[in-house]
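WARN retry 2 of 3 for item q-0093 after timeout on previous attempt; input resubmitted unchanged.
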Amino acid sequence: MSGTEACGRTGSFFGRIGTFTADGNGKITGGVEDVNVCSGTSTLVLTNSSYSIQADGRGTLSLTNITGTTNYSITLSTISQGSIVQTDSTVTAGGSFQKQDTAAFSITMIASGYVFDFSGVAFDSRNNLVQQSIIGRLDADGGGGILNGLFDSNTAGVLSGQLAFPSGAFYQLDAAFPQSGRGTANIAGKNLTFYIVDSTRLKFLSSNLDFPEALVGDAIAQLNTSFDITSLNGPFAFLIGGGSTAGPTSTAGRFTTDGAGNLTSIVMDENNNGGLTPLPSSGGTVTGSYTVDANHFGGGTATWTDSKSGTFSFIFYLASPVKAVFQETDNNITSDGSFLAQTSGPLTALSLAGNYAFNWNGVSTGEDDFVGQMAITTTATSNISGAMDFNLFGLGKQFFNYPFNGSLTLGTDPTGRNTLMVTTTPSPQTTYKFSAYAVDPNTTFLVGVDTSRVIAGMNTRQP
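OK item q-0093 returned
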């Protein structure tokens, strides 16, 4: 999880990772968490904790440690994963959780190529804490050694370019918590704590050795192949978020690669502190291209230019030919996320109908975090209903079990821009308008297109 905490009279970046064990009957029987807060970092053991789950997958989680109890709203997308938002008055944060594979709690199981995406705050050249994004890849040797480490950092819009890891890269498990999958590592020159989800995913947080820096992110297994320009061939949807010199920013869209370095069918919505940039612009045309690094480790670049709105530039590291971590490299922007291959099957009102868990994060007067469940039907209008919990940090208010309705309107080409509208029904009503980019019938990327807030997130189909 990452978000904002009250630190004195200001908001401060906040990070949390950890593990908990649910007993299937409402009790949390154990766990441990690491937090990076403005007062320092801590490793905390969980005791006397509990959870609840409703029939629609929505629920609550209360975790108690020596410092007190923290409270969360959650929504399950399946029985093995879900979304989570902290709902305390002094902290708001959003994130995800996945069921762990305890058989993977061995250093020998971390033996693959991995791509990673870490974001948060770090020191710039003038020793100020600013926004930072780091994406890259590495080979873990199954014994704590790291080979072929490459990364790109974006520190408040200042780009490092692709760099090799500094000396001293490693990973190791923590013998103090053998049942947790907890470990420590040095990756891309950063000291980190991690938790193993399974052999294909690890979750990371900056450790006390780098405090007050705070970076949060995941590493996912990379396909063991030699990547080249032909590795990307087909349609993709993407979602990235972060900040700029103007304020918070989020962007979603889609593009098609041809296996030869050309990008076509580029559609995009950017919300930069309430300033909206849709592509193609009115009366404009968009052209683009991409490269894949000659070293075959999966790094690459993507660039597109709108004849009226200008050029947008990105770098990526491929986990496979259908998935990558993605970072914007334009001036004064620090933004990252991912792109995923779009479905080869039809996207229709019928194929998109169903129940979805969702998690949205954004900024209005302060950070806003939402989690909930919606049902989408094939009715032509007002075809969305559901309920959500959300934490509006700027207002210091939390809302629970808030009903809403709305509509999903498909565009002429549903692989491009669609429109999702959600309106809370209690007074005073609030409407959230999104451009929706479907990855497939199970996953949709969302970017808010209201000028009063920046918000983005994802809808994930429930079984």
